[in-house]
Design a protein that fits this description.
The chain has helices at residues 2-20, 26-29, 40-45, 185-188; strands spanning 69-79, 82-91, 97-99, 104-109, 112-113, 117-121, 129-131, 136-144, 163-167, 175-178, 189-193, 196-197. The radius of gyration is 44 Å and the shape is elongated. The chain is α+β, with helices and mostly antiparallel strands. The N and C termini lie far apart (124 Å). Strands 1, 2, 6, 8, 11 and 12 form a 6-stranded mixed sheet that branches. A 4-stranded antiparallel sheet has the order 5-4-9-10, with no helix packed on it. Strands 3-7 form a two-stranded antiparallel ribbon.
Length: 198
Amino acid sequence: MTRRLIACGLLVLASVTACGTRTPDKAAQTLPTAPSSPSSTASSTSPAPASDNPQAVTPDGKRCDSALLKGEIVPTDAGAGNRYGKFVVTNGGAVPCTLNGYSGFQLENASGAVPTKLERKADPGPAALTLAPGAKASANLHWSVVPAGSEPVEGTCQPEPSKVAAIPPNETAPLSLPWTLGPVCSGGRIEISAFYAS
């Protein structure tokens, strides 16, 4: 009986020792690594989205003003009491300048201002232009020489202008230009377009 117990005890001890000294295989030692989270530097080094309009701001912000521009009134057509012309400006400076919109326009003579009713037309409408030195832009003009309302039928319908004060868009100082195209009827009504490249 004692021998049997000793033998069983030796078997149990051998089994525990064998189990405790068992070396795990290599596969059991290699633990799977968790996937790495995206690096915060990866997102900061990704390229920034392209601008919708990288050319929106021009390097030169100089507007075309009366110090840079040379102007003239050019007749273009006439018929049935209607008169047509163009207000043409030229960049007389040494650098490009920008022009966008409508000109102010006041008829004058030696006595001062002559009645002028300026009406803006949307054909063509405002568009940003960059005028290189020597480049031109034009604004279309239309007026009538037919008396209207209480204007006299004999003689001139309105005082005859001899010059015009034309103010470039977004400016305050006018260009003074000769006007040789006679009186402007309908109370001095002149239709003018925005400037366009010419």
